Structures are given as C-alpha cells and as structure tokens.
Amino acid sequence: MTALATTTSPIYMRVGSVSEALEMAARHSDDFSYLAGGTDVMVNRFQGNNPASCLIDLSGIAELQNVSEEADWLRIGALVKLNRLKNYPPITEYFPVLIEAARAVGSPLVRSMATLGGNLLCENRCIFYNQTEFGREAVNYCLKSGGDICIATGGPKVCFSEFVSDTAPALISLDARVEIAAPGGGKTIPLEEIYTGDGLQPRKLEKTAILKTILLPLNRCFRSVFKKLSPRKSVDFTSLTTAVSVDDNGKMKVVLGGVSPGPVVIEWQRNGDPEALIKQALKLCKTVDNDVYSRNYRRKMISVFLSESLEQL
Question: What is the phi/psi pair of residue 264, to 5°?
Fold first, then answer.
C-alpha cells in the first residue's frame, strides 16, 4: 500500500488487493471514497460534490482486471477499462450490446481511463446539482447538496437526480449479476438489485463494499438494441438510454436509464403488445425537468426509442 497526505490534499492510498482495500475502508469508514478510473469521482471532487478526506485507489488490484469464462458465465472484472471490452472475443461474439454501450460513454480519453465497475456506480446527476459551488449557491442548495428542497420540483422530500450509467441498462437487459465484496462477507446478486431508485442514496451497497465482478450468462442467445439520447454523440451524459434484449426463449427485458433516479426495468415477452409495453414504461419513469432536454420531449423519445427497438428486434 502507498499512502500520501498533505495539508491541502486528501489522504491517498493505493492498495493491491480487495482485502487490503476493505481494511483501509474500515479504518476510514466515516470519510472516504474508492477511486478507480477517476473520471466520475474526480470531477465530482472538482465541483465540490465529493469532499472525502481519504481516497482509496483500487486500480492496482490485478484480480479485478481480467475477463474469463467459468461454467455458464462470462466473468468481467470491475476494473476492466471501457475501451478494452472490445478486445475480448466472448464479449464481441455474445454481448456486442455491451461494447456499444461502452462506446456511448464520454470520449475516447475518458473510455481509456474509466472502468466498467465505475460506470455502473457513477453518481446520479442533475443540472441543479452538477454545478460549481457558486452555481449551487446561486440557485439555492438542493436536497442532494444539503438543502431542504428539490430545485427541479420544489418538493421537500424526494430527490429526482438521474441514473446516468450507459453500461448498466445494457447489462441489466442481459440478466447480468454482480459479485460484491464487503467486510461482513461477499454475495452475488442481480445487477439491478444494487440500485435503490432514491436520488439521494442511489445504491443499496454498504459504503465499504466493493463491486468485484460482472457475470453474464453464456447459455442464452441474446439479440439486443441499445439507444442513447444526448446533445452530442460523445462526451455528454445520457438524457435517455434504452436497452432491449430478447433471448432464444422469447424472454424480453427492457431497461431505461436517464429518466428516473434508478434504472426502470420491465420483463416482457417477445410477442407482447408494444403499446402496452410503452404505456408501462411511461408510467414507471419519474421524469422531471432537471435535464438539458425537457421532460415532455424525453417522454416522447421513450416511445420513439422503444418502438424502434421492438421493430429492429
């Protein structure tokens, strides 16, 4: 482990194993952040949205940087960089939608640093929250930054910050599972179960928990369609992401991101009524005006994206 500290910088620790990371997290449990690629954490620190006094760098953990096949599962380490996913034949052959989703993240420079696990755990966003300190003070502090109301809705209780991971909808549509390491013991759960749907606390994971591995089923033949709405084809965070996957048994899973505080997940059948599916998706989405696109436009694009996806499938 390497540890550095100055009077103006946070304590920085670079660890070499999951167990070492958990040990360091336990020592600094009141005020720390895990760091992998840094493309989300460091930007939030620059904006003043992550004031942690201790950073635990996971990037040196070799066991989380591999891709392998084990029985009926493809195992992808959480520290695999997004731009490296295309280098693994099992991903390109069986799960090309994951590569498409990874290419939708940021820019080539960001993808060369960002990790798959980091993108799954990236912080929720909102135009009223992701500002400089001056900007947040000017419009009044929102619930997510310690204020007493949601600026987007004026409500005092619920934060509607958006779930913006691009890779998570694709992976959830493929019935991905994740391995979690925590001080009390590890567990393997469906990926969608780590999200709460609460903009203030978007994930159910213990603060000290580490996402180790993403598992994808190899014994099913998926066909998938991925779509993303954003002002530009690169760099920008999503305003709407849809991923629709169907397996060889006709089981369909529809996942939406960017339009609620958590992923919107719908299980369907290939021969189901498209209009009923779209109606259910619109009912489940908690879309508000906290994005560069209006609420009404994004809801219209949900119908467009899902109609196009079902037609392509």
Answer: -95, 120
Per-residue pLDDT of the chain (313 residues; tens, 9 = 90+): 554 444 357 899 999 999 999 999 999 887 999 999 998 898 888 888 888 889 999 999 999 999 999 999 999 999 999 999 999 999 999 999 999 999 999 999 999 999 999 999 999 999 999 988 888 888 889 999 889 999 999 998 899 999 999 999 999 999 999 999 998 889 999 999 999 999 999 999 999 999 999 999 999 999 999 999 999 988 899 999 999 999 999 999 999 999 999 999 999 988 889 999 999 999 999 999 999 999 999 999 999 999 999 999 9
Nearest-angstrom CA–CA distance, 304 and 240: 11
- Calpha distance 89→103 (Å, rounded): 16
Q: Supply the angle between the helices 295-312 and 274-284 in degrees, to the nearest 10.
A: 150
Residue 95: is it exposed, middle or buried by C-beta count within 10 angstroms (0-12/13-18/19+)?
Answer: buried
Q: Domains in the chain, start-ordered, CATH in brackets?
A: 2-60 (3.30.43.10), 62-122+161-312 (3.30.465.10)
Cβ neighbours around 50 below 10 Å, total:
16
Q: Which of 214, 220, 293 is nearest to 259 (CA)?
A: 293
Query: Are 160 and 154 spatial neighbours (Cβ–Cβ below 8 Å)?
Result: no
Report CA-CA distances (Å) from 51 to 112, 140, 219, 234: 25, 19, 44, 28
Q: Is 204 helix (H, G, I), strand (E, B) or coil?
A: coil
